[in-house]
Amino acid sequence: MSGAGTLPAVEPLGREGLDEAAKLHVAELGEEFVSRFGVRFMARYYRAFVEGEDARALCVREGGELVGVTVGATDAARHYSYLARRHGPALAFEVLLAAARSPRLAAELVRTRLLRYVRGLVRVVFGATGGKKVPEDDSGSGEGPVGFAVYVAVRRGRRLSGTGRALLSAFVAECERAGAKRVDTAARSGSAGERFFSSLGWERVEVRTSRSGERYALFAKRLHPEVPTSRPGDVG
Fold this sequence. Notes:
- The protein is of the alpha+beta class.
- The protein has a single domain, classed as Gcn5-related N-acetyltransferase (GNAT) (Aminopeptidase).
- It has seven helices and seven strands; from the N terminus they run βααββαααβαβαββ.
- Strands 1-2-3-4-5-7-6 form a seven-stranded mixed β-sheet, sandwiched between helices.
- A hairpin with a 5-residue loop joins β6 and β7.
- α3 (76-101) crosses α4 and α3 packs across α5 (114-125).
- The longest helix has 26 residues, at 76-101.
- The chain starts with 10 loop residues before the first strand and ends in a 14-residue tail after the last strand.
């Protein structure tokens, strides 16, 4: 337990913590569409951030219990290319299993996302980035990657403890050490995530509607003020 005014200690998430992290994600970020694919899918997804060279998975524990976790890429373009090549087929298999178990999920998947996901898998086969549009280095100088904070999940009873702030601060520091010039993220409009990033002073770039119909607020944190903010592609 951290003292008053002290942020909780952050540590790397290891492979042994994947199932625990996946359960926390599904419980606390159940509104996210990917959470509907289940714990096995999320554990595999988080594994890509534990193992990826251009990604980080960080957590906070209290008394050995996981109370918060964040995953993100220190170089979004490189990491999502790796994720698609190395983990894409296994993730696709988990999606199919989840859809087979839930006709309602299958119907929504077909209606809102299937074509985009299939296109992504085709790109994987041919060695591209797996269909996920990610931030690029648009500074004009070609210097440094762009990081992306993907998820921050905190147990409900610890959301005012500074756990989320500690996790995000640690991740941003990792991005800076890796040479990133900026860190981007996206949060659903009206969500606790949107309020969280706003409260930390992240720059709101714009609000976009994804191809699936959800509205997202896009945020950026410039690690070097001279680097302009990108306009990320489709989200969701």
